[in-house]
UniProtKB/TrEMBL annotation, chains A, B:
Biased segments, Low complexity type: 116-132
PANTHER family: LOB DOMAIN-CONTAINING PROTEIN 23-RELATED, LOB DOMAIN-CONTAINING PROTEIN 4-RELATED
Segments of this protein annotated with the region Disordered: 110-132
Pfam families: LOB
Residue ranges constituting the LOB domain according to the UniProt record: 4-105
Coiled-coil stretches: none
Protein name per the record: LOB domain-containing protein 24-like
PROSITE patterns: LOB
Domain of life from the UniProt record: Eukaryota
Stated family: Belongs to the LOB domain-containing protein family.
Amino acid sequence: MISGRCAACKYLRRRCPSDCIFFPYFPPNNPERFASVHRIYGASNVAKMLQQLPHHLRGEAADTLCYEAECRTRDCVYGCVKTISQLHQEINKAECQLAKTRAEIAFISSSGGQGRTTTTSTSSPITSSTKF
Amino acid sequence: MISGRCAACKYLRRRCPSDCIFFPYFPPNNPERFASVHRIYGASNVAKMLQQLPHHLRGEAADTLCYEAECRTRDCVYGCVKTISQLHQEINKAECQLAKTRAEIAFISSSGGQGRTTTTSTSSPITSSTKF
């Protein structure tokens, strides 16, 4: 019988003990979730990382390990550091746009509202690039 | 003689072969860099990940693996996913601020430049929160 084993024990072709460290976080119906962390960290490292945490934090830790492993599988060079880098760029863009928009306000204010046409044309492009 | 061995071979107490996969990316003067990736991924997984990449991409991969490992060491639950989440929050804040600032422009434009006082008071706080 193989039913009742978690995805990790199924993958590792071993008996799933009643106190299996993987069981609550790697259900049998999602084998790719375990395969992914196993590929990047190895089963024993994942077990070690989960074991050193209190029970109520293990689910979140398993989720973030899976996320990082999936990113690393998709991008073997940059992993989820690529996402961090892209988000920094987005923030820089948004800050630039904010500065420009504030400059527009100053311009409109100083010109007594006569700079309306310039305003609408320069403040349009950034919203779409900061969407995720 | 132990000189000439890379940080990985020193850490693993083994001879450092001339074609050592770790040597170019884990210099002996930075033992913590290897200790960090070893703690999270294990030496064999790091070697495997580097080996599957062309030489010119291995340095960047080693750097991003070190970054992720250091984040995971500092925060065992969220690792660098915490940074990603914080950056998303910063972007949301910046977008909100941008929308508010645009609404101010519309208001000033429609009131013929008479909304100057409101403008300067509401557009000030975001810049500091989007700095890193």
